[in-house]
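## tool: complex_structure
## caller: assistant
## args:
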Amino acid sequence: MNLNILDFERPIYELESKIEELKNFMKEQNIDLTEEIQLLEDKMVKVSETIYQKLHPWQILQIARHPERPLTSDYIQLICDDFLELHGDRHYGDDQAILGGIGLIEGNPVTIIGHQKGTTTRENLQRNFGMAHPEGYRKALRLMKQAEKFNRPIITFINTPGAYPGIGAEERGQAEAIARNLLEMSELTVPILVYVIGEGGSGGALGIGVGDRIIMFQFSYYSVCTPEACATILWHDTQEAKNASEALRITAKDLLEIGIVDDVLQEPRGGAHRNPVAMAKNLKQSILQNLVHLKTLSKEELIAQRYSKFRNTGQYLDIQINQSNQI
Amino acid sequence: MFRELFRSKNKYVTVNRDPQYSDRSEHETEKVPEIRERVKVEKEGDHLWTKCKSCQEIIYNKKLAENQMVCPVCDYHFRISARDRINSLLDEDSFIELFSEVTSTNPLNFKGYAEQLEKNQKKTNLRDAVITGRGKLCGTPVALGVMDFGFAGGSMGSAVGEKLTSLIEYAASKRLPLVIISTAGGARMQEGMLSLMQMAKTSAALARYAKAGLLYISVLTDPTSGGVTASYAMLGDINIAEPGALIAFAGPRVIKQTISQELPEGFQTAEFLLEHGMVDRVVHRHELQDELSRILRIHRMVGEVS
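## result:
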């Protein structure tokens, strides 16, 4: 039995196994059940469409955290003609929670940087569940500066519950490392594409998240803090996490509406983990399209547009002119 | 010699308030301290004295205020309101508030947020968690942003981000040195991702400001944490911290929960950050004005504001 099936996914998996059963039965007994199978398959499409059309943010959060959800390394493998990982921040160490390197996508040189979770417990410990230390953010910055030097576009993949809250992280300046990246990324003279592929956890996500296009995968989330933390801090009750996931407006659809992200990448039916190849194809297409557009801009235009993009985020009231600044 | 010039002031500047809000300032201004005190004695007797959180000494409030909210016995630095901070740093009557019209709204229709904003506005007589403006520090014009922990834990939402960004841009356009005094719990949760993005917005403005070759001094006070530390508060050309201030990315409680072990003594204090190379200096509140003016003098920043 697959332990990684989410509750709301169950009806789909049940129908799937029924279809499988019928197919086997058909083979063994040599009876024609094509019609029945077709009926069930149609039903499956309908059921999953209904389920995935009205997912609660809490359910989207679960898909974003799904153990089988494709990782940065998976997408790199699926979209690159060639890729070389580069290690280390040149100051302290090599943080395995952030993966970075250089490669080619359809012959285009790029630098790719992303949070990297593990697939096994052992790997997850090694990669600290995708929660980076300052050296991770500093490695990212080093690679971005390198990309700028060689005029390579930068692609970042966000997938972290947050920057790691630990003693060493504080000692080595977690806050400074993130802050520095925000400042530097705002002025890099090469195109930066940011994809939120899974979890977009707060400052730890934003630390590699300043770019010309911010694009979210359909079932990813991006939040100022985890709904669990929000529930604990504001309502002193972890049971409220589900409500917090709704109130914080963390889904791709919400954030597109609010104007935080530029685009949403549709995922294959049931989420990226059901068909990583199809997802990677969408991703690659999106990367190439955006790069073509951004490469037409001069360095000055690129930076000016990036500045005004972030300059204009926020909703507040301006009492003097009595107007609300909506984006 | 110089120090004496700055330190022993009996009267500090009054922050110019918007006339719109003058109904509140009536019983807040320093013109009528006697009345204010009498009311306090009659109504809230316990507001006359404060117990020091560090040495447990009982201190007469008036004495504490005169001492810039520093315990006269053990030097513990109490939290101080943005207005008191401005009064203690800038030359008398030199402060002109800017961008005061920018106020928070409730963009996500977050439950209880509108009420909370109103409550905080009443409590602090501020519109949001930061006051921005320009003034003179020992004669030198500066752009100054001061956060107030009393307003929603000094959290940064759209309004705080917008005011600070406007201030940074203003300072750049007038070629003024910039001082931001931080105290914050982090990004304001009730505005969700809009708050988080203020980190990128303020940092991008600082990048431009830095490129113009201008001086930014960040002063970190108790407590500064989360998204504020991880953006403008850590990006000063010179970072200054107040003694004993808690300065963190993740708060001690979160770290304790994550690693489930006791934290080392003095962890995340200003002195700890100094030791680990994150701040340039730890400066006593009584020395702050003098230190800032010395730094400004060394940088010879001359602004357009006269």
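## assistant note: The mean pLDDT of chain B is 87. Strands of chain B lie at 49-51, 58-60, 96-97, 102-104, 130-137, 140-147, 178-184, 216-224, 238-241, 281-282. Handing back to user.
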